[in-house]
Write a structure and sequence with these properties.
Length: about 290
DNA sequence: ATGTCATCCTCCGGATGA
């Protein structure tokens, strides 16, 4: 029985993360990968990883810039109708590389890097809220079979931060940010990890400083929001904490979601034809850590 | 601990972003 594995990962510089990203792809075998904070131009990304990814069967949709931001979608189940950016979104002051969308295996996939907001009340905070409003309009106008993945830079509830008191006066937890996120879920987009683990302490980001990961003092700000028809197909949804361990990790962990085949079979062939065999899920060059 | 890690450049130490 085939399924589609979708993942999202803020890699905090793909150039600095090659030694983690490629083994992770081989180990976890995602079919669709949304990346954020690639921090590379499209040409530099292609030069760095184009060959390695093509060799693993991935097509790429890239939207990067020289220094900051940058998003991508990797897919080995098709990659069509690529759109970069969010129509109507503001810049700061110029447009930033924070969104790319593509249709992969019959699903409209969005890789998102929402502005941080820096300080409540700041210009950047207003930018974050305006950007989210534009995103809402794009999702509202888009296909019904959709999944919006990425670093939303919002902790949906107080259960999504290690200590609500530690975040008083900080971004990521303020009512206007949570209201902006609620406008996305009001479109019918489900937070599939929280749906799966309603009572679990689950984070996706831990500050590099002060041993925050070791102490599990983090936040859940990397989300997978799935429209109803996709949410119904979710068979697994989890945070890959292994990828946050060891040498040279990102400060974010990947989120991985497995989807059952679409009931009417409209997702296309997810098993390549015999002429183009791909690695079987679970076969890995790396030891599978526990 | 203003704690770390990433980016850039009046370019190897400091400013900035997260």
């Amino acid at each position: 029985m085939s399924c589609v594995r979708v993942a999202t990962w803020n890699v905090n510089s793909v150039k600095q993360r090659v030694a983690r990203l490629l083994p992770w792809l081989d180990q976890r075998q995602p079919d669709v990968v949304c990346l954020q904070e690639t921090k590379l131009t499209d040409s530099a990304f292609t030069e760095l990883l184009g060959g390695e990814l093509a060799g693993r069967g991935y097509a790429m949709a890239l939207h990067g810039e020289v220094q900051w931001n940058g998003v991508a979608i990797l897919s080995r189940v098709g990659l069509d109708d690529v759109v970069t950016g969010v129509v109507g979104a503001p810049g700061f002051p110029l447009p930033e590389a924070r969104a790319v969308a593509a249709t992969c295996g019959g699903i409209r996939v969005h890789s998102l890097y929402v502005p941080n907001g820096r300080t409540p009340g700041s210009d950047h905070y207003a930018y974050k809220l305006d950007w989210l409003a534009a995103l809402r309009d794009v999702l509202a106008a888009g296909p019904e079979v959709a999944i919006a993945c990425g670093d939303l830079n919002i902790a949906p509830t107080d259960a999504d931060v290690f200590d609500p008191d530690a975040y008083i006066g900080q971004t990521h937890v303020t009512p206007p940010e949570r209201a902006a996120l609620a406008e996305l879920t009001a479109l019918g987009m489900r937070d599939v990890v929280r749906d799966r683990w309603p009572d679990r302490r689950v984070f996706t980001y831990w500050d590099y400083r002060a041993g925050m990961f070791h102490k599990d003092l983090g936040m859940r700000i990397d989300l997978v929001l799935a429209s109803g028809p996709v949410a119904e197909r979710v068979r697994a949804a989890w945070v890959d904490r292994q990828a946050r361990k060891g040498t040279g990790p990102s400060d974010h962990a990947p989120v991985i979601v497995d989807l059952d085949e679409a009931p009417d079979g409209d997702i296309g062939p997810v098993v390549p034809p015999p002429s183009a065999p791909a690695a079987k899920r679970g076969s890995t060059k790396l030891p599978q850590s526990s």
